[in-house]
């Protein structure tokens, strides 16, 4: 099997609220939005928002309300960029879980939860390269 991720789907409680957060709050533009789902094209990958109950039904896995241990990361080019993304997310209604700080692995990172509780890390890893097109090279 080829090593890649093509799509991350977030189960959301209120699709309209989630869209407002990502589009109005974070400034993301949808690529496609058929009934009940919205897709955002990201560099080399896509993100989908889909009703949480609909996703549970589709996956044949109940919503159990526990943190799954999965986070999604946005890697930035500078500490100032990390701070700016966290501030933008907070202004859009995110909950800041951890303010950005220098971390043991030599980078700088913080965490926020979107309105549906999905945990995002915003980080600068000085050993990694963020390419012109936004893709990551480790």
TrEMBL record:
Key words, A-Z: Transferase
Domain of life the protein comes from: Bacteria
Keyword check for Ion transport: no
Occurrences of domain VOC (ranges): 4-125
GO molecular-function terms, A-Z: transferase activity
CDD domains recorded: VOC_like
UniProt xrefs under SUPFAM superfamilies: Glyoxalase/Bleomycin resistance protein/Dihydroxybiphenyl dioxygenase
UniProt keyword annotation of Signal present: no
Pfam families: Glyoxalase
Record InterPro entries: Glyas_Bleomycin-R_OHBP_Dase, Glyas_Fos-R_dOase_dom, VOC_core
Protein name: Metallothiol transferase FosB
Species this chain originates from: Mycolicibacterium chlorophenolicum
